[in-house]
Amino acid sequence: MTKSGFKIIGFEQCDVFQLAPHPAALVPIDDADRSAIEQGIDEVGGLLNPLIVENAWHDSKDANEGRVRYVLDGCNRLEVIQRKAAAFHQGASVPCILVTADDPRAVALTCLMAKRKGSTGQRVLAHIEMHKAEVLTAYKGNGGRPEKTASREAVYTAEAIAERLKCSRDDVSKGIELMLELLNEKDAKRAEILKEARDSILCGGGSIRRWRPAVGGKLATKNRERADVDYGHLIKRGAVSLCNGLLHESECVGDVRELALEAWSKICDRLPSDFIEILIGSFASWRLSDQLRVEKTIKSVLAEK
Question: pTM value?
Fold first, then answer.
C-alpha cells in the first residue's frame, strides 16, 4: 500500500462503457488541455497511458448502463474516448491499471502532481487538499499562522510545504486561506464562487495569488441587482425617435431607404394594431403637412407587407 492509500492489483483491457469517473476523483481541466487530449488520442488512435481504475464494481447512476468500475485517474481521457466510441456506434477498450484505494480523491490528486510540473497553484492546492487534516491541525484556522508544535503536523506549516514544493510561502498561505474559507463559508452564493476559484486554479486557469480579488469581483457582479426596465417608457422613446426620423423621410433615398423600409416592416410585424393606431394618432399635434406625410409613409409600409 502506498502513502496515498492505494495498491496496484493488476492490468486489464476494459470496456469504456463499463467505466465511469469516480465523483471524488474529478479534477477540472481547461479547454487547452482538453483539446490536447483529443489531439493525442486522434494521433495514436487510442490511449497510450493506462487509466487508473478501482478494482471494484458499482451500480451505475444510469440504470441502463448496469454495473461499472470507477476511474480514479484519466476521467477526462475516458470522457473523450467514450464520446468518440458513441459517435461511431462501436465499442472500445482501453488499458487500465487496477487498484484498491482508501481515498479516491487522494489518488487523483497524487496523479495530478506526478504529471507535468503544472502551475504553482495546482501543486499547492493539490498538496494541501491531500493533507487537509494535517494542515488544519498545524494551522488551527489562526489567520494562516502555524501552531508552534513539535508534532508531525509541523511538517505541514506554510514554511515546510513551501520548502517541499520549492515555492513561495505566500503562495502556500493563500492556498490554505482558500481551503479554510471553503470549509467555513456558510453563504451558499459565496461558497459556490469559492469552489469556482479553487477549480480554476486546479485546472491551471487561475492564479493562487489572485484568488481573493477574483472572488470579490465575481461576488460583486452577482450581488449587483439588475435595474428594473420600464419597457413602456422604452417603447415610447423608440416611437418618438421613429416619428422624428419620419419628419425627414423625404431625405431617405437609395439603399438607405430600402434598409429603412425593411426595418419598418419588421417593426410593424411586431406591433399590435392598437399600437400602430396610437402611433399614427400621436401625430395630431404636428403641423398638418407633416402629419399627413408621416401617416402616408406608415400606411405605405403596411400596404407593402
Answer: 0.49
